Structure formats: structure tokens, C-alpha cells
Amino acid sequence: MSSPLRLGIAGLGTVGIGVVKIVQKHAEMLARRSGREVAITAVSARDQMKNRDADLSSYRWETDAMAVATAEDVDVYVELIGGDNGIAKDSIEAALRAGKDVVTANKALLAVHGQDLAVLAEGLGRVIRFEAAVAGGIPVIKAVTESLAGNDVTRVMGVMNGTCNYILTRMESAGLPYEAVFEEARQLGYLEADPQLDVGGIDASHKLAILSSIAFGTQVDFDAVEIEGIERVSIDDIRRASDLGYRIKLLGVAQMTARGLEQRMSPCLVPADSPLGQLVGGTNMVVVEGDSVGQIVLRGAGAGEGPTASAVMSDIVEVARGVRMPVFGQPAASLTAAKPARTAVPAAYYLRLELQDKPGALAKIATVLGDAGISIDRMRQYGQHSDSSVPVLVVTHKTTPEAIDYAIETLPGTGVLVSDPVELRIEEV
Amino acid sequence: MSSPLRLGIAGLGTVGIGVVKIVQKHAEMLARRSGREVAITAVSARDQMKNRDADLSSYRWETDAMAVATAEDVDVYVELIGGDNGIAKDSIEAALRAGKDVVTANKALLAVHGQDLAVLAEGLGRVIRFEAAVAGGIPVIKAVTESLAGNDVTRVMGVMNGTCNYILTRMESAGLPYEAVFEEARQLGYLEADPQLDVGGIDASHKLAILSSIAFGTQVDFDAVEIEGIERVSIDDIRRASDLGYRIKLLGVAQMTARGLEQRMSPCLVPADSPLGQLVGGTNMVVVEGDSVGQIVLRGAGAGEGPTASAVMSDIVEVARGVRMPVFGQPAASLTAAKPARTAVPAAYYLRLELQDKPGALAKIATVLGDAGISIDRMRQYGQHSDSSVPVLVVTHKTTPEAIDYAIETLPGTGVLVSDPVELRIEEV
User: Fold this and answer.
1) Which UniProt key words apply to this protein (chains A, B) (predicted)?
2) Which of A32, A149, A312 sits opposite B334 (nearest CB)?
């Protein structure tokens, strides 16, 4: 058996401690599977005094992540600090320069600086692995870069923020408005310190940008993701969608088109009986489509100590086994700078309109949709909502986002709406 | 870039031709992802004259798989002949001895001779990869051996024979009896030449035995799988199960218990709204549970040219990338000979009984179940079925297979049954 693989771990939050626990609990199993012992040498975190759920006494404590990253007796630097800049980035760069391989769960950093880090690592002959950065315990990075290596990937999509899915699911099951469930989630500790990372769709978009890169061989481009969070999803829309056989999910979709790479993160309707529609609570799901494999669906816990630590460990074992791969599955220099494209792939859309209850209102709406070139698949008019308004739901046939934008801009001019129209894309899954 | 990886492909059926097509169509992409060119040097199949859906003119044709396996100009022997013995086995052994790595889709061979082949390969420093052997395009071998390397796997289960799932799904949707749908499937070409491989559960059990080995670090032991096919699943049971909120699936389950390794393949009830319950048609699903990762669900096409060739290609790219791993994820010498255990893990059971329509019949049944220590969760008595019989469904609380066996043996002695009792396990998913 080879010499031990020596880990230096920076960041001892939930995931870091989860990794420590696995290394301690499964030492013999890891050695058998890796072909060598996996040992922790040094650790660091902001607060040494904090009470942690693991015995760290046999590891050297460093007050500085930098010291862990560059320590003589560290082979793999495990970065679990987080953040798209600062010490996380600096320490990873230092580790690479000091000849260490890197394992990280840092989606924000990779989404923003992934290309530069890949160039640096590959120039130095080091690897960076990041299975835990996307969808927690679900092995989606490996699936796309390795299992689908023989495929031209045509589309990647997923529900990749458990907190948002929890909120949307709970709104539906409890019949509660967004604000109430948001507050519940906050009290349950489900939200990031900056909740916009979750409900604003940013965290999920970091993950989507990374997935796009490995799926399409493009330079990771987080800024090109069209992002919309779940804040404007109303309980009304959740109920109406459900009536029509749909569920609303914060869905990330990336697909390569003739016009460029579309990357969007937005609340979408998906069929209630589809795998994505069935996904409740904090679970994540990623769907990958390739020209040979067809559609692959991967489902599991997207966060939490065990699942995320499991993903980090899988990367560590790969390094221990001697697996060497370019960071994004092909040499960084060969990743293309994809032209970002605004969403143009046609889809059906859901429209909710609150109309004045007077003759001719519906005709005016229908005229605008017709002028926009939008044809109607289904329409439902409900009983009067309040003194003066009537809710009308429209499910369109497939149409372009441009046509929908035109309709949404034009509809208020009819003078028959009592509030702004709501539109949601119905993603084909 | 390194020298090309040269493939020799034996067996040019659907999968073999699928591999050829990918190599031809995606040459540049494969080179980028692999770090080297992937080239086909030699091919062989039974019938050179057969019209095939690919241009093979630039490859050397060998009349004998042996010649491909041992050719000087072959680095990887791709065995797609099939069969648990004969030329498939001989040629793989010859290839290993000639210093070739091996990629195969041959589940039968690995299920029966996997341990010996692993010992041989590892002794010679060669790798054997077999992603395509289990669940077609679903990357389950990689998920278990690599992504879950930090987990103590607690259970693996799956629907891994698309033909059986097609038959069961079609019986339900069309309301047709088994025999009629079996005949349909035969005419559609869905069945193996020996249909027992499919409907008898043997093919799926080959896959389960392989999964067990990599999940639990045990020597593959196909003979220890308790196998029951789908032949005795009646349209009556499918309907009744559906009434109760379940679907019937041919489900393989492997779990390590204190008594030994349980491996069973049998028609089971699963909740209709679970991922496994939702699976229709020829799609496959594998569920893996680990102590850290929790539950991972993988879904995709389990057969067919594209998906299976995709899996073969992923193995080829891994070899091209220089990935070297023990055949079953840890050295063959360290795989333990697991004690096979008959199913003892408790479960709820579904019982269908046809009773004589006379006073006291139900009491006699209830007495037998009580004597067996079985308590009843739900019971439904239906209207009279024919002149003399009344169908009664029982869903038990969790009980042991032994208790169920006792009840099934004892129930006929009550003299109130008009036909043999039917029992099906309700697997917790």
C-alpha cells in the first residue's frame, strides 16, 4: 500500500466536521477502497474554542487557512470555508502553488473564478475537485464529466436549492403565503445568512453555471445566467398551477442553442406527475440529457452534513486512487467562451390575469395574445374574485419568450387588467 | 497529447454498433475529454456479411474474437458478445493475459465469474470496467464504487429489467393479463431469446449480484440471489394493489444484515407515488442508501443502443484518461465471501385470499394470522367474486418473512380458501 494521503481541512462547519467524522469512522474502509490510508494532518477554522461534534485533538490546529493550504505535511487541501473571494480563493491558489491538490465544496468561488483557477491548477499539474459544490450528495459532477463523456449533452436542468424547494412545497401543502413560509424557514435555520443567496436564486445559479461548464465544455460564466428568485411566486399561482396539473419549482436550465448558451434560473411550471414535479421538501434533482444516453435523472439530498461530506469524500478518494483529470473535464485552455444567449427556446407559458368584470374584457386580452402570435391551449375563467375582478388563467401553446414579453408589455394597455399580469414558463421535462 | 487509445471490439450487435457510431461521430470531443485520441483498430462478429448501420471499412475485420482480444495493435478489448461462458470469457482472459484492459457489458459473465476475472486482472495489473452491465445508461457502477466511496452502503435496490417493467406497466394500463402482454412483448422484440432471462428475473439478478459486490465489498455471488420472476403476477393483484395505493414492480434488493447478505429479486409492492412506483415502461431505476449520503435515486434508460453504448464509452474514456481501479472498487483479494442470508428483514405484506362466502370464514383467517404473530394494518373485503368466492385483501403490519411463510402454509388448512393465497412483499422505499 502506498503512503497515506494527508488532508489539510480549512473550515470546520457542518461539512468539515462531517468529513472528519467519515475519515475517523471509516478509516479502514477508505484505505481498502483508496489503496492507501487517508489521514488528516492539519485543520483550521475561525474559532478554535467552538464546541464541535468531533474529536480534533490528534490534528494540528492552524490559526490560518493559509498555513493549512501550504503545510509540508499536507497533500490535499480541503477548502470548506466558502465565499467567492478572500481567504477561500487565496488559500486555494496558495495550495496549488505549493503543489497540493484541492478538494472544495465552494460553488460561489468556482462559479465566479472557476476558469482562472482551472488554468492555474492545470498549469501546475494539480487537480481541483468539487463534487460537493453542486447538489450536495448527488454525484452530478461525476455523472456529467465522466459517465456522459461519450455524449453531446443537450440540456441540463435541476432543482438545486433545497431551501427554495422547501418553501414552495410548504406553501402548497400548508396553503400559506410566501412571506409566512419564508419566516418559518428562517426560524428553522434553513436560510443562508444572506437569504437572497437562496430565495433570490443565486446559490442555485452558481451551481447551474458550474454544470453548464462541464456539460458544454464552456468557460464557467455565472454572470450570463438569467436569474429570477422565488419571491414573486404567490400562493395563488401555486394553487392555480396545481389545478392545471402543474407544480412550481425554482428550476435551472442550461442548453446550447444555435444562438449561444442559454442559462436561466427561474420559477417554472413542471407537470405535477413528472420526476421534477414530484420532488418535495429539501431534496434536489438534476436531469441531464445527452445525445446517446437520453435522459438521466439523479435525485438525493442537496445539502446537510452527511450528504455534502459524502461528496467531499468521494473527491478525496479519487485523488487517493490517483485519478487525475482536468478541472472541468477537459483542459481549461480548450473550454470555449460561449456566447451567452437570452432565453429563446420556445415553451408553453402560464399567464394569470386579473380582469375587470365587464363585457369585452376577455376579447381584448385574446386580441393582444393573437396579435403577439400566441395561441391558447387552455383558458380558465374563475368566479368573481372580489367586487371588481375576475381571475383568468391562460396556458399557451409553445411560443417564444419574445412573444410573451410583448404580450406582458401590451396587456396593461388594454385597460381591463386590475393588476399586473403574471407569467411563468412551463418547462418541458 | 498521448498516443491514441486503440480499441478492439468483439460483438457488433446493437451496443457494439452504438459504440462505433459514438467513436466516429464524436472523435474530436472524445479526444478533448480523454486527453488522447480514441481509435478503433479491429472488430469482429459472427457474421461479417450482415448489413450493419455503420461504416466498418476502416477497421480490420477479424473472424475470431480471440484475435481481436490479443491483437498487437489493441490497447482495450471491448467485449460485447455476451454470455456467461465460452468465447466471451475465454477472450477476456486472453486479452488480460495479453496486457489489454477490458471494457464489457456482460452482466451474466461478471455475475458468475466476476471474482475469478477480478483476481486474474488485478494479478496482471489490468482493469476490467463494466458500467454498461448494470442498468444500461444509468451510471450506477460509478456512483457506488466512486461517488459513495465514503459511505457504508446499507441497501441497494432497483428496477433493472425494462422488459419486466414494461410488461407490468402495460398490464396495469391496458388491463390485460400477463400472458397477453408477454405475447405482445415477444412480438415487439422486447424479450431475450430465452425469455426466462427477463421474466424469470435472471437478467435483473445478474445485475443485482454485481451491485451487491461493489456496494458491500463482497465476492459476487449470483447463486445466493433469491429469485422470483413476474410470471405469477396476476392482473387481479395489479388492480388490487393499485386500489391500495401501490404498484407492483420486479424489484431487486440487497442489504447487509447481522445474519449475512440478503439478495432478493421478486415482484414487490411499492407506494404508487414513490420514485420506484412512478417508474413506467422500460425505464430503469436504482436506489442506493449510504450512511452519510442518505438515499440517492438514479433513473434512466436501462437498455438500447444509445444508452448502453454511452455507458461503454464512459468506461473507455476512463481508461483513456489513465484511471486505474480494482475491478470491484477494492482489491479482489479483500472482497469477503459474504454469508448468504435468506430474507429476514421484516416488511409489510400484501395478501390476497379468495374465501368461501360463508359465515366464520374471515374469523378463521384472522385466527391463523394472529397465531402467526401477524397483525393487520388494513383489510378489504370485496363483493362476491363468483358464485362461491369472496376476495379479501390484507395489508399486514411489518412482520417477518418466516411469519408470512407460516401463514401461507397454514391458511389452506382452514378449509375456507377456494384458491391458494397470494402474498407479495411491500418493500419500504
Assistant:
1) Amino-acid biosynthesis, Methionine biosynthesis, Oxidoreductase, Threonine biosynthesis
2) A32
